[in-house]
Write a structure and sequence with these properties.
Blueprint (H helix, E strand, L loop, with lengths): L7 H9 L5 H5 L2 H12 L3 H12 L7 H8 L7 E10 L3 E10 L1 E3 L3 E4 L4 E4 L2 E6 L2 E5 L1 E3 L3 E5 L9 E3 L17 E7 L5 H14 L4 E5 L4 E6 L2 H13 L5 E3 L3 E2 L2 E4 L6 E4 L6 E8 L2 H9 L5 E2 L5 H8 L5 H4 L2 E5 L2 E5 L7 H17 L11 E9 L9 H17 L3 E15 L3 H10 L3 E8 L2 E9 L6 H8 L5 E11 L2 H15 L6
Parallel strand pairs: 21-22
Antiparallel strand pairs: 1-2, 1-10, 2-9, 3-8, 4-5, 4-10, 6-7, 6-9, 11-13, 11-14, 11-15, 12-13, 16-23, 17-18, 18-22, 19-20, 20-21, 23-25, 23-26, 24-25
Length: about 500
């Protein structure tokens, strides 16, 4: 405004006389925004020196490490996919930043997560919404690449096998789920294709396609997020769909250490013994923040063990950790079992299966520390295959969970609500009616900002309710999302609702 000699009076006059369009020529928004980007964003040569150690955990002194930190166009190729765009002419365009090397059309590259070699068919750079094809693009650019078949956001593409970049995670987990089906049965194959595309385009949603039962589930951050996705499927993809009622995804956890439980294989020749206890809050927070990475733990990962050691857990105990999955931990507490390496992967599969479908209502589990204390195995390998180990491990862990006071946790979102101060009473009443908790209120003149905690299960229709309570002048956004114990009074009621919805029998 200063640069173009525009005053607030000019703007008020322009809006009063309905001549505000002239400001689009006088001070176009794109030049203001782009100049701010140029002035304030560090260039890749500066940024990669401090960004690479945070997002890439390989050896910084290696050839790849030096090339990444210096953004070297002559080094090995290192490209990370951050978004998939579906182009009707080119198909899947993997968009992302090229941190090192030069990407060329026709070049052979390696996809580190998919573990396969592919050939680059097309390289392009972006000019706004336009994609301009080029023969090659050097490090530091954001580029679009065609040829990476079935790739996802977070894939690391390189000229040779390398340590992948850290996984791209959304700050919140999807907590609201809807079933989705095609209006016409003839469109079912197209729906499956569209859902796969949508899952690639928006990594913050989760898609589960069950081709056997024909049930498709789509999970997102909230009701509004799913409505936007539904609208995109209908308008951009041109597909008529029907969606079910929104469902909240709960978590199952435990309140106390369990008794020792035994799991027997169907042939009675293999036995596994488990105890379970609640996972320490500090470790859970480190897993949630990404300081401790999820996945099966290799014995060489000393960095991870050192982080756990800082929380007062001995290195000896830390080295027994075999798997971190969904905010749960598996510890191998056995000693002197000769054939353990032959069955440990099967045991971890069984552990992950139980963590995906808990004891109370087959909801995912969280904050559990499962310890394998002993096992007795048949000496003949043919009698301890997957068909014997899986049921034994699942039964053993479930039996242990049953003795550790299992309970449901519900997703709770911390919101910031902005509204005129005169509506404080109405907004407070709305929060109370939705089982919410007011955390803080700040008032500046006629405007108020308040923070509150609301269970996701009570938030359906929140936008409309808030508009009604504030004469259309209130809005909200999510600051954080956590899981908290569902109140004792609601435990049985909610458990029964989930079991009835899933068609689970009482004794299951």
């Amino acid at each position: 405004m200063k640069k173009h000699n525009i005053t607030f009076k000019d703007i008020i006059d322009a809006y009063s006389n309905n001549s505000y369009q002239e400001f689009a020529k006088k001070a176009p928004l794109h030049s203001v925004v782009l100049n701010a980007v140029i002035t304030h964003h560090p260039n890749p040569l500066q940024a990669q020196k401090y960004r690479i150690p945070k997002i890439w955990h390989g050896e910084l002194e290696s050839t790849e490490g030096k090339s990444l930190t210096s953004c070297d166009p002559n080094g090995p190729v290192a490209f990370i996919v951050t978004k998939i765009i579906i182009d009707k002419h080119a198909g899947e365009v993997a968009t992302g930043r090229l941190f090192s090397g030069t990407m060329q059309q026709g070049q052979d590259v390696y996809m580190n997560m998919a573990k396969k070699d592919v050939r680059i068919q097309q390289v392009s750079v972006y000019k706004g919404a336009q994609r301009i094809q080029v023969d090659a693009a050097p490090a530091g650019n954001i580029i679009g690449v065609v040829g990476l078949k079935n790739t996802y956001a977070g894939e690391t593409v390189s000229s040779a096998k390398m340590e992948p970049f850290e996984a791209i995670k959304h700050i919140f987990e999807p907590v609201v789920t809807k079933s989705i089906e095609a209006k016409s049965a003839a469109d079912l194959p197209k729906l499956v294709e569209v859902l796969k595309q949508v899952g690639k385009e928006d990594p913050s949603i989760s898609i589960k396609i069950n081709e056997e039962t024909g049930e498709n589930l789509i999970s997102g951050m909230g009701e509004l997020h799913l409505e936007i996705i539904e609208n995109r499927i209908k308008t951009e993809k041109g597909l008529n769909i029907i969606t079910g009622q929104p469902i909240v995804v709960y978590r199952e956890s435990i309140q106390k250490p369990s008794l020792e439980a035994e799991g027997k294989s169907p042939n009675k020749h293999n036995k596994f013994y488990f105890v379970i206890e609640p996972l320490e809050e500090e470790i859970y927070q480190m897993i949630k923040s990404g300081d401790i990475s999820e996945g099966r733990v290799k014995k060489k990962e000393t960095e991870e063990f050192k982080k756990i050691e800082t929380l007062g857990i001995s290195m000896k105990e830390a080295k027994k950790i075999r798997d971190i999955y969904g905010g749960n931990m598996f510890i191998d507490g056995t000693k002197g079992i000769v054939q353990i390496n032959e069955v440990i992967e099967l045991v971890l599969d069984g552990f992950e299966q139980v963590m995906d479908t808990g004891v109370l209502a087959k909801e995912p589990c969280t904050k559990m520390k499962v310890r394998l204390v002993d096992m007795k195995l048949h000496e003949d390998a043919i009698h301890r295959g997957p068909a014997q180990v899986y049921p034994a491990v699942r039964d053993g862990i479930r039996a242990a969970v049953s003795t550790s006071k299992p309970m449901l946790y519900e997703p709770v979102q911390i919101l910031q609500i902005d509204a005129p101060a005169s509506y404080l009473g109405d907004v407070s009443k709305l929060i109370q009616n939705k089982r919410g908790q007011l955390l803080e209120v700040n008032q500046e003149g006629e405007h108020m900002t308040l923070k509150c905690k609301l269970p996701v299960a009570e938030m359906f229709g929140m936008s409309n309710d808030l508009r009604s309570a504030t004469g259309g002048r209130g809005n909200f956004f999510v600051i954080d999302q956590i899981y908290e114990k569902l109140p004792e009074l609601l435990q049985d009621k909610v458990k029964k609702q989930i079991r009835d919805r899933k068609g689970l029998k009482e004794e299951e």
